[in-house]
Amino acid sequence: MTGILGVYPLLVSAGGGAVGYGAWFVIHARRSRREGNGRLASVLPWLAALHAPVMTTGLVPLGLTFLKIGAVAFGSGYVLLPFLHADFVGGAFHLTERQVADGFAISQVTPGPVFAVAAFLGVQIAGIPGGVVAAVTIFAPSLVYAPLVNVVMRVTEAHPGVRAALDAVVVAAVGLIASACVTLARASFVSPIEVATAVLVFCVLWRLPRAQPLGVGIGILAGLLVIATMH
Questions:
Q1: Residues 6 or more apart in contact with residue 51 via CB below 8 angstroms
Q2: What is the reported pTM?
Q3: How far apart are CA 60 and CA 84, in angstroms?
Q4: Domain segments of the chain: what residues?
Q5: What is the DSSP string of 148-188?
Q6: pLDDT tens for residues 146-176?
Q7: Nearest Cα to 103, choosing from 131, 76, 133?
Q8: Closest among 6, 108, 9, 130 to 68, alpha carbons compared
């Protein structure tokens, strides 16, 4: 949905969590009424955040943007793409869909994909200092979250509503990954060669899920073929 309708990814994740908690709340309320227990959960945890557009370029806005992405991105590196697209394509940072897609492609063939894509885009925006700032700030929230993992797990286990909300956020993350596919396809499918390559790699990985290196190799060969046809 984010790639098609332009909805900010954080709203999708937060909305998924709210829907999951709401569904649990309704089911629990009905069950409580049947059992004659009118007491429900006393606190309703809301996931909410606002997307504040960056007004100017520079290391500070760049760092704050990657800090925000690192704080709210939920799931794998694939979920990261809709956030990057929403914050960096156009606007104050003046990146194109092609640049974001290139950064994501580089991240998939190098160790540490999140680090790689952040550093690549940071360099595109503000040179080497921008790459360093982006790579550091996107991981900074993890330093705060890591000590809280056990606390969050205990809260999740103790409160079924929170667990339902978290399950719904995971479902929303699946939608974000699908949106990432739409975003990449829009930037990458410029000729029949790219389309055929994508279909071939999909078929290979469908039959051989662990053959990701083979898929990367097919992509490299297709890229060389595209270059050859351009000259």
A1: 8, 10, 11, 86
A2: 0.65
A3: 17
A4: 2-188, 189-231
A5: GHHHHHHHHHH-HHHHHHHHHHHHHHHHHHHHHHHHHHHHH
A6: 777 777 777 777 777 777 777 777 777 777 7
A7: 131
A8: 9
